Amino acid sequence: MDILGSIFLWMCYASLGASLVAILLVAIKKGVSQAISWRMHHLLWFIVLARLMIPVLPESSFSLFTWVFWASNSMSAAQPLSFSAEPQLMPNTQLPVVISEVSHELKDNEKNQIQTEAAKDEGMNAVSSHPIYIQVLTVVWLVGVVFLLARLFAYLYKIHNKERFLMRVTDERVFSIMDDCRKKFGVKRKIHVYTGTLAKGPLISNLFSPWVYCPRDVYQSLSDAELYHVFSHELAHHKRKDLLWSFLGSLALAIHWMNPLVWLWIRKMKADMELACDEYVLEVLGEKEAISYGMTLLSFARRISERRPLSYPLYFHHSHHSDQMKRRIQMISKFKKGSYPLSALAVACGLAISVVTLTNAAEPTPLQVAVNQDEKLRPLFGNTSSKVTNRLEKAERLAGFSFKVPSYLPSEVSYKNSNILHSSESEPSENTVIHLFQSENISLMIGVSTVENTMESFKVISDDGTSKSSVDSTLSQEQISLKGKSVKVNTRTATTKEGSVFKDVVYLWSDEGLYYYIKGEAPLENKEIAKIIESFQAPNAELRKTYVNYDFLNSDIYDLEDLEYFSGMIGFAPVFPLELPGGYKATGAYVNKKLNFSYPENEEDKHKRTIHLTFENPEKPKTIVLFAQIKDKSIVENIRKTKKVPFERIDGAKFEVPVTSLNISGQEVFRTAPYKVDDTLSSPKDKDNHTYFWLKEDVCLKVTFKEVEADVQQQLVAALVKEKAIDLKK
Question: What's the pTM value of the predicted model, to 2 decimals?
Answer without folding.
Answer: 0.51
